[in-house]
Design a protein that fits this description.
alpha/beta; 14 strands; 41% helix
């Protein structure tokens, strides 16, 4: 019998965060190896717990969670989100312009599906969180990448972004705080990007799932407050700041001039209705999560688990013969770069596979984040600091071997 042929839409879709390397890691685990998994920002797998009062809110509303809910989400949860957005300065936010989904991932897909015609272009950062590229492609769009180079602190160049805009460009995507780099965009840069969107009538899509995860006094600036009447969707959720990935509760808030977004809002509602509703049970955690005192600050402040893990990574890179790193100011990741003068011919995928098979450490190659010819890899800051220090001992061993192997032919050529 003929094999089933996958859809051609998947030809250019990648998601290596859970791809071939992860499958190989599972094979090694089955063979009895203990793999240190640094590929996913999944707090619950590293001993972090959701705040107890969120669990209590869910438990007390189990009897209210057995019927389908509103397609946009529980009204009490949407009102809490709208209140948060208004307090942050967003204009035109209302309950009917808030959508709750099964994580931000589902909402990214819905937002792009409601927007794109075949061949429309979306401006995406490089590196990006690869779901953005995948959702653009699967909904008929074309990614157009603007660079966020390490040499520029992983911040974009507004002039480069504007030069990429064509008659088919529909949206500008920002990921702030950034995954995978940890960059946090300053207000002045965000104002420039809003001005570009206004000039070219683009929809702003701001992935802010790590909004409260910042370090050493870094300030997070919500985009919607600067966007004003420019249409903007802000994405947030419980997964990271509230350490509740498994609850699968994300939201998007549509702000800006209502007259320009009425038809688009209705399209979002239609798509939300087609999947009936998001998980009702976990939505009861939204109100206490946004209304009560935040709990992430004790983890990101000096002495806190995330802050000390980040410190361990910074110290390890500073001591490395082979690595450089732009200090991550936010989010849950570091994005080190291998120095070209130490290892000239570096293959990030070969390195990641070797690190996994030789040292039992799973990281994500930088090319997985749509960075051409990448010398980067991403790892999460969630493990305990001591384990991260051990990880970098293993990374250094692999890089030393790679450097030695490249030096051998050069020495042989000189002797010849």
């Amino acid at each position: 019998m003929a094999s089933i042929t996958p859809s051609a839409h998947l030809a250019n879709v990648r998601y290596e965060i859970r791809g071939a390397l992860t499958r190989r890691a599972r094979e090694l685990e089955t063979a009895g190896l203990d793999i240190i998994k640094l590929n996913i920002g999944n707090p619950g797998r590293y001993g972090f717990e959701a705040p107890a009062h969120l669990r209590a809110a869910i438990a007390s509303h189990l009897h209210d969670s057995e019927a389908y809910g509103h397609e946009q989400g529980l009204e009490i949860a949407r009102e809490a989100i709208a209140t948060q957005q208004r307090q942050r300065g967003a204009r035109g936010v209302a309950v009917e312009r808030i959508f709750i989904g099964n994580g931000v991932s589902e909402l990214i897909d819905i937002a792009l599906r409601a927007l794109l015609q075949a061949g429309d272009e979306v401006l995406l950062p490089s590196p990006d969180y690869p779901l953005w590229s995948a959702a653009t492609i699967l909904n008929g769009g074309q990614p157009r990448y603007y660079r966020c180079l390490a040499a520029h602190g992983h911040l974009p160049d507004p002039d480069e972004i504007e030069a990429l805009i064509t008659s088919r460009t529909r949206a500008l995507v920002l990921i702030n705080p950034n995954n995978p780099t940890g960059a946090v965009y300053p207000r002045a840069l965000l104002e420039q990007l809003v001005a570009i969107a206004a000039r070219h009538r683009l929809l702003l899509l701001s992935d802010e799932i790590y909004d409260e995860i910042v370090y050493d006094g870094t300030a997070f600036q919500p985009l919607a407050a600067l966007a004003g009447e420019v249409p903007c969707i802000s994405f947030g959720g419980l997964s990271k700041v509230h350490r509740a990935c498994g609850y699968r509760v994300g939201w998007m808030s549509l702000s800006g001039e209502a007259a320009r977004t009425t038809d688009y809002r209705d399209a979002l509602q239609l798509l939300a209705a087609l999947r009936l509703c998001a998980n009702v049970t976990a939505q009861w955690a939204v109100l206490p999560a946004l209304q009560d005192a935040p709990t992430i600050g004790t983890l990101t402040a000096p002495g806190g688990r995330l802050h000390e893990a980040r410190r361990s990574v910074l110290q390890a890179v500073a001591a490395s013969e082979y690595l450089d790193l732009v200090t991550p100011d936010g989010a849950l990741y570091a994005f080190p770069q291998v120095r070209a003068e130490r290892i000239a011919r570096f293959d990030d995928e070969a390195f990641a596979l070797r690190l996994l098979e030789q040292e039992s450490v799973l990281v994500v190659p930088g090319s997985s984040f749509n960075v051409p010819r990448s010398r980067h890899f991403r790892l999460t800051l969630l493990p305990p600091p001591a384990q991260l220090r051990e990880v970098f001992v293993r990374i250094e061993r692999v890089l030393a071997q790679m450097a030695h192997e490249q030096e051998q032919p050069q020495r042989a050529a000189v002797l010849a």
